[in-house]
């Protein structure tokens, strides 16, 4: 018998998504999560990468302070669309 400890592989973080808007930038908050900030540094919401059988989806979320959880704004195929939803929503 062996005393080998079985460990799961560490989660590999995704590269920061590229967005075309010069008005916002992304700041990593976790392996699959970024804060979307405007030019003044105000947080507009969060962008999360979610795997989908058809490819990578970009989820726009807002932090709900009262519950400490995230509220879904929408799922998008492009990071730019998710950022636009946070900017305009």
Summarize the structure.
With 89 residues, the chain is mainly β. It has one helix at 79-88, and strands at 24-30, 33-38, 43-52, 55-64, 69-76.
Protein structure class: mainly beta
- Distinct helical segment count: 1
Query: What percentage of residues falls in helices of 4 or more residues?
Result: 10-25%
Main β-sheet: number of strands, strand sense, barrel status? 5 strands, antiparallel
Q: Give the tally of β-strands.
A: 5
Radius of gyration: 16 Å
Strand order, main sheet: write it out. Answer: 1-2-3-4-5
Span between termini: 58 Å
Shape: globular
List the domain count as a whole number: 1
List low-confidence stretches: none
Question: For the record, what CATH class applies?
Answer: Alpha Beta
The CATH architecture is 2-Layer Sandwich
Mean pLDDT: 89
The CATH topology turns out to be GCC-box Binding Domain
* Beta-strand percent range: over 45%
SSE series:
EEEEEH
């Amino acid at each position: 018998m062996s005393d080998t400890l079985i460990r799961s592989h560490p989660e590999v973080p995704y590269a920061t998504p590229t967005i075309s808007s010069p008005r916002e930038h992304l700041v990593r908050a976790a392996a699959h999560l970024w804060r979307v900030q405007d030019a003044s540094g105000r947080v507009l919401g969060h962008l999360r990468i979610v795997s989908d059988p058809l490819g990578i989806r970009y989820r726009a979320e807002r932090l709900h302070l009262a519950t400490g959880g995230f509220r879904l704004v929408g799922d998008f195929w492009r990071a730019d669309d998710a950022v636009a939803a946070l900017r305009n929503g």
